[in-house]
Amino acid sequence: MKHNAQKLNAEKTAILIVDLQNDFLDPNGAYGRAGQTSSEIAALPERLLPLLNLVRKKGGWIVSTQFTLVPGKAGEPFIASHLKKLRPFLKKGDFAPASWGNSLVDKLQPADITVEKVAYSAFYQTRMEFALSRAGINTLFVCGIVTNGGVASTVRDAHVRDFHTITLEDGCAAFSPETHDTAIKSLSTVGEVMSIAQAMKLFEAV
Q: Which of 49, 86, 157, 171 could hold 123 in an S-S bridge, CB 3.0 to 4.6 Å?
């Protein structure tokens, strides 16, 4: 199904931001300190800001989902075994609930709804579906990181829950362009894919 301006209801539409957090993007965050960076990932907040400002102006929603390492005894985080192998630099305090590192990057704040998540998908064992339903949201423009991980899982889970789901191709990024492109191609079979500029045209026409 193709979107058009006549069908877009801004008040029932959200920009769903996946994992654009200080611990991922900021040089002083967990990934930055470990040298786990990507120029494409770093460029996302500046690229997305005009769209977010327009959505706010039109009465739409900004929803931020944030990867969280839940602390256990003495504050030591529960880290999945596969993640420990992939990211051995993660430590106590990283991605902790309500911390600076866990928060949405300043440039994109504020979010209307914030949902912590513990896995790739923003819907897995979270309150996301409840919050979107109570807000009356039925359309999601998904952006963030990484395209092949949190974004892809969230898009697919939104799709099977009957949300009209659009992936913002240049609003997402991965650690390599090739990985990003492969994921976008796959997601085009699940829902719509469009550019930030195309999304802005839809909101401008509302």
A: 157
